[in-house]
């Protein structure tokens, strides 16, 4: 195991806390601590730097930093899947997020619900919840697509990234904007060819040509193909079009492709940039675009990274009201103040040490799953409303 594991144990820091700070799964951190297996999708030196920063914040200078990542001894194989050997201060913390939930027929009848407020896909821009944070990200994506730029939208799973992508495309079409959207397929995208298929610069070039010049056959020579791509972008721009390359699941992009994106961004016709870029991905994308990652420093200097915030500072109530108003259900007929407070508490991880900030998991998907499960529980026991006790019992 790593010496790091001993330091965490000596200072009573749970592995789950480190995992949350690094935005990694607990299983990944357990494999690292127990067997020295570093995640292949991340740059090791960046992850080491993030761990060191975490330790300085958590335990100041009261720890031995020498040979921090050295393997001091192997743990027994029977313990290889152990996530947190220390006693849990709050066992509920490990099960804060629920699987996909659906309303039962009993629940629909109990609360007189003819539509599922959280289970239905957003069908139009009017159904997109817009907080001040989302409004900024939404507009930033549109302005980047229309006027040029390079940005990355980062958010946890269920934070609403895909909804914002669909909203952007819908707005472009709805307003009749002369913006051509280019989306490479990412169905099997991984950052190495062992787990899946990597998205390379050549694939992006093919996607651009397929969108702008579908009747042309891509040239075989890379030099000729990229010259062909540049010409297609230039001709389209002179015809009055802007172009935006949108890559979802961008956290799975390999580092070489991220570096190549700078060259796509720098394609121009005189002073006019020919291609805007919007990357959409989970927190691992922010780690790959870290200022400490020297491999992508040229990209970092040009790419604005915006993060989708959780539903904090009163946004939880606003989100619930919006979703329930959408189906014509007053919030007061479904959940009371104690229930809302319990949802907030259930999806918030308190800082483990003095001065450490709490971590919020109040993202739309997690909130919807938790409240749906609570509604089913309330209907099962005949409670008229979702209360704090009902939420705590889920």
What does this protein structure show overall?
- There is one protein chain.
- By secondary structure, the protein is of the alpha/beta class.
- The protein folds into three domains: 3-94, no CATH class; 97-121 and 311-392, Orthogonal Bundle (Helicase, Ruva Protein, domain 3); 132-307, Rossmann fold (3-Layer(aba) Sandwich).
- The chain is 44% helix and 8% strand.
- It contains 16 helices and nine strands.
- The chain has helices at 3-10, 15-22, 26-35, 44-59, 105-110, 132-147, 161-174, 201-212, 222-238, 255-265, 283-288, 297-300, 315-325, 337-346, 364-381, 388-392; strands at 150-154, 179-182, 242-247, 268-269, 272-273, 276-281, 304-307, 348-349, 359-360.
- The strands form three sheets. A five-stranded parallel beta sheet has the order 2-3-6-1-7, sandwiched between helices. It has a two-stranded antiparallel ribbon with strand order 4-5.
- Strand 4 (268-269) and strand 5 form a beta hairpin.
- Residues 74-95 have low confidence and may be disordered.
Our count of helices gives 16
CATH class of the largest domain: Alpha Beta
Classified in CATH, the superfamily of the largest domain is: P-loop containing nucleotide triphosphate hydrolases
- In sequence order, what are the helices and strands, one letter per element? HHHHHHEHEHHEHEEEHHEHHEEHH
Per CATH, what is the topology of the largest domain? Rossmann fold
- CATH architecture label of the largest domain: 3-Layer(aba) Sandwich
Strand proportion, as a percent range, falls in: 5-15%
User: In what order do the strands lie side by side in the largest sheet?
Assistant: 2-3-6-1-7
């Amino acid at each position: 195991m790593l010496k790091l594991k001993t330091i965490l144990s000596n200072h009573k820091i749970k592995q789950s806390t480190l995992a949350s700070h690094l935005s990694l799964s607990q299983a990944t951190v357990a494999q690292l601590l127990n067997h020295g297996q570093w995640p292949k999708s991340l740059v090791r030196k960046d992850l080491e730097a993030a761990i060191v920063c975490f330790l300085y914040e958590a335990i100041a200078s009261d720890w031995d930093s020498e040979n921090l990542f050295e393997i001091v001894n192997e743990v027994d194989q029977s313990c290889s899947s152990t996530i947190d050997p220390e006693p849990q201060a709050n066992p509920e913390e490990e099960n804060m997020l629920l699987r996909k939930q659906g309303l039962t027929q009993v629940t629909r009848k109990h609360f007189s619900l003819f539509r599922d407020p959280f289970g239905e896909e957003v069908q139009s821009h009017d159904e997109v919840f817009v907080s001040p944070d989302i409004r900024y990200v939404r507009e930033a994506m549109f302005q980047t697509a229309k006027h040029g730029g390079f940005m990355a939208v980062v958010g946890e799973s269920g934070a609403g990234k895909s909804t914002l992508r669909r909203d952007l495309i819908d707005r472009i079409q709805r307003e009749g904007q002369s913006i051509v959207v280019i989306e490479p397929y990412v169905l099997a995208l991984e950052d190495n060819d062992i787990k899946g298929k990597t998205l390379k610069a050549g694939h992006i070039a093919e996607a651009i040509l397929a969108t702008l010049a579908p009747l042309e056959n891509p040239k075989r020579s890379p030099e000729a193909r990229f010259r062909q791509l540049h010409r297609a972008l230039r001709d389209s721009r002179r015809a009055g079009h802007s172009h935006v390359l949108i890559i979802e699941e961008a956290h799975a992009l390999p580092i070489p492709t991220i570096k190549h994106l700078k060259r796509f961004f720098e394609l121009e016709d005189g002073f006019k940039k020919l291609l805007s870029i919007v990357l959409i991905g989970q927190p691992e994308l922010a780690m790959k675009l870290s200022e400490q990652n020297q491999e992508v420093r040229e990209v970092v200097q040009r790419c604005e990274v915006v993060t989708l915030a959780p539903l904090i500072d009163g946004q939880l109530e606003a989100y619930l009201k919006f979703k329930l108003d959408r189906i014509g259900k007053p919030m007061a007929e479904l959940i009371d103040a104690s229930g809302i407070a319990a949802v907030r508490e259930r999806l918030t991880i308190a800082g483990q040490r003095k001065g450490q900030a709490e971590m919020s998991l109040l993202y739309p998907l997690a909130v919807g799953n938790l409240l749906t499960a609570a509604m089913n529980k309330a209907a099962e026991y005949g409670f008229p409303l979702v209360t704090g006790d009902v939420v705590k019992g889920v």
